Amino acid sequence: MKVTVAKALGTCFGVQDAIDLAxxxxxxxxxTIIGQLVHNPQTTERLRQNGVRMVNSIADPxxxxxxxxxxxxxxxxxxxxxxxxxxxxxxxxxPLVLQVHKAVARFVREGYHPTVIGQADHVEVxxxxxxxxxxxxxxxxxxxxxxxxxxxxxxxxxxxxPIDKVLRLVNLIRASFxxxxxxxxxxxxxxTKDRQVAVRDLAREVDLMLVIGGxxxxxxxKLKLVCDELGVQAYHIERASEIRPDMFNGLQHVGITAxxxxxxxxIEEVYNTIINLPGVDLSACSGLPEPKENLH
Length: 296
Description:
- This protein is α/β, with parallel strands linked by helices.
- It folds into three domains: 2-11 and 190-295, Cobalt-precorrin-4 Transmethylase, domain 1 (3-Layer(aba) Sandwich), CATH 3.40.1010.20; 13-94, 3-Layer(aba) Sandwich (Rossmann fold); 96-184, 4-hydroxy-3-methylbut-2-enyl diphosphate reductase, catalytic domain (Cobalt-precorrin-4 Transmethylase, domain 1).
- Helices cover 34% and strands 18% of the residues.
- The protein contains nine helices and twelve strands.
- The chain has helices at 13-22, 41-49, 76-84, 95-109, 123-129, 163-176, 190-203, 218-229, 264-275, and strands at residues 2-5, 31-34, 53-55, 66-69, 88-91, 113-117, 136-138, 152-157, 181-184, 208-212, 233-237, 253-258.
- The strands form three sheets. A four-stranded parallel sheet has the order 1-12-10-11, with helices on both faces. A four-stranded parallel sheet has the order 3-2-4-5, covered by helices on one side. A four-stranded parallel sheet has the order 7-6-8-9, sandwiched between helices.
- Helix 7 runs parallel beside helix 8.
- The chain is flat and about 60 Å long.
- The two termini are 29 Å apart.
């Protein structure tokens, strides 16, 4: 059996910067993160071991002088509330998420109705829309009618949405409301696009794809969705211990990809577990890229 790792996978620069900031020794036992810094259980455990505390919301009891906004971002009102409560706020929001906030603010200033393509219950989308007086969130084609009557529509996307889906929905909105002024800002982040392109290319060559990442990671779920849409069998796993030898019975070629919040060492453990299975042809395996190459 041959094993190939996708050309782009794993932790992106925005996630890595957030982790590095929170893991700084000066924060030990002094920092509380509001929410999950990133959607990955191994990273969450590392943070806890380093003395970092976590709460679900600013309303929960916080006993540290510092609080941190996660890589997914938050409404500006959350920052103001935390500061008014006496906490020093550190912002780990990914720069590419901040670009979405800025694009929405520009649409509002110019009189466009802000519209977000994404998941209404996702923390990133809540952060984008949290301070808006009015807005619309579109998950799929069935929700386009929410925009009936809007004359000026400004569209952005949750950064981890599949770009093909986003473009399809934008075109449907334009076709559904031909008299409206529809403006679109592409805010799907480049690391997400790179990983989606890489998994699409690899999925066409393999019998099975392993997609590594937190079970609550949106971008990891989207990578599996790409495989599903191509009709390629795929398993979404969080760690190597979920691998069973019978997953690979009769297979000739297995692919590996990982979401943007998946640490290198988790990918490495999965890869090493697979290549040590009986019947794996090591000479035909792609090997792992160096960790720094995973951060593009």
